[in-house]
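Continuing from the previous page of notes. For each protein in this section, the sequence appears first, followed by its structure tokens. Read the first protein now.
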Amino acid sequence: MGDVKKNMEWVFLFIILAVVCLVGQRWLHAGEEGNVHEVPGTVISVENDEILRAGAGAVGVQAATVVIVDGKWKGMQVRAINHLNGQLDMDEIYVPGDRILLAVQEVEGEITDAKAINMYRQHWELALFAVFAAALVVYSRLIGVKALLSFLGALGVLWCYYIPNLLEGAAPLPLSLAVLVLLSMVIIFTVSGFTRQGVSAFLGTVCGLGVTLGLTLFFGARLHLGGMTTPFSTLLLVQGGYGLNMQHIFYSAVLLGASGAAMDIAMDVSVSMGEVKTKRPDIGVRELIASGFNVGRMVIGTMATTLLLAYSGGYLTMLMVFVSQGTSFTRIVNMKLVAAEIFRILIGSIGLVMVAPVTAVIAGVLLNASWEAWGVRQPAEK
């Protein structure tokens, strides 16, 4: 049995490494389609004569002289255009010394046109990720390495498989459920190994996703949420996504947001019960399940509030506008955007409440089942 567990762990690690390599290749070749390339550069001078300022916003065109700092054109100076549309959340005005990202057009090896895209933030983002990875590995050691690989693998599945299939018109809910079940399996078994705790956490997560999906379909139809409340949904339609089922894509986003917390709850409960069983091998099924229920109650008590704070943080400025305008509570909760966030928070919280007891029952049964009951000879004690 021990060899089977190790083999399964290596299989899942191999799958994750393959996915990480795939997404790495996709990212390395992103922005290099046709004769357009993306390169970093440093601004050495700007021309702001054609910029019209209106309050905090600005419209017009900024011209910048930029030195390319990487790639085959390293050291070359180009004149880049920065278009300003009056959108404070998207526009950026550059000053000399800024490191920016350029889109350059190449014809016969020469740059014929250049456009400023964004500030070049990639190096600091990588530094922040390195701090996260180091902290994770230093504290959790081998488990931290597995968690890091599962993190990258999940990112790869979402980027290289899930999103492209959504854009191609695949049914969002069946696709989302299949992807989340797959990700739950790979993430849980990679971190915990192919153990009874891992199986319990996986089954509890899947049951929680099923409940979340049912509640999403039932209450989503009655709240008349069409799916256009998610960021960039209008832009997605303008770019040709008229055939996409935006309502079910919104439902899928709710499932996706709830799945991570559900996995967390399931692992907390199952691992805690595994520790109890290790310290008290003679504990009975009912007593072990009761311990799991107690752990679940404590975790859920804070997790539900965590979801509220996380979603509220994303819409803090919207809440500030409501308070500053003295908007009534009745009007606020009936707004489509607010109703969508209330829906997201409560559906996710109910899913969490269901995951904990289901996982406790499954773990209580599996942890107390004898090896012979599974048709496997009990391994010799080391």
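Done with the first. The second protein uses the same format. Note its length before scrolling.
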Amino acid sequence: MKCDIDRTSSIPLYRQIAESLKNDIELHSLSKLPSEPELANQFGVSRMTVRQAITELLSEGLLVRVRGRGTIVQKRRVRRPLNFTEVTSLSDDINSLGENVESRVLEQTESVLNKHLTEKLGLNEGMKVYKLARLRLIDGRPLIYQVSYFPESFASILVHQDIEHNSVLKILKRTRGVTPETAKYIVFAGFADRKTSEVLNLNPGDPVLGIEKISYEANGEWFEVVETRCVANAFELTFEIGRFYPLVQNGNL
């Protein structure tokens, strides 16, 4: 590892160290950084300065802290397209980008919609539904925790399907003739709760990217509500819009 830094330079030491670590990551394909004391000794600086450099790389998404593993090098971010012309499933979106997606079913059960979702999505509180919780791994990394809710009548079909290896949307198209027409997305920055942190190997309170979606058929009936939590610095959302639409019209947002 190159440890030379220029103490006469106007560039702060922590930024020089951050650049040196970046170069080393690119040249030697590091998967995990040495400890803070080791880096402080290598660069001849304080642990505080090393910590600043690491914080810089964390904020850029080049490093990520994983519970039980320490600070590791983050692989390239996954670009998740939010499709405005077609209602697609998460697995279809990721697979279309050539990513290696593995799905693990964590829970399949009868449930009811919680107050949080019913208020946001305009559905009836206490509505009986079929709940499907899944973990999505991309290139072996646990990056997505997804809980989906379907009308109660879908349970008898989905419970007998190989959901880990097949798109639920395609299953519903084939077995129920479901034809997706529209979807409403809610995207927000949030923090990992206890369950999310356990599933994604995060610490409680770590940042996550939240996506909530409700999908409708052509007749206006909903067929899926999804709560998704993603490791925040592993994803980029991409949008494609057909024409420019001004955010401000007549002085109003």
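What the second structure shows: The domain at 13-73 is CATH 1.10.10.10 (Arc Repressor Mutant, subunit A). The longest helix spans residues 13-28. We return to this in next week's lecture.
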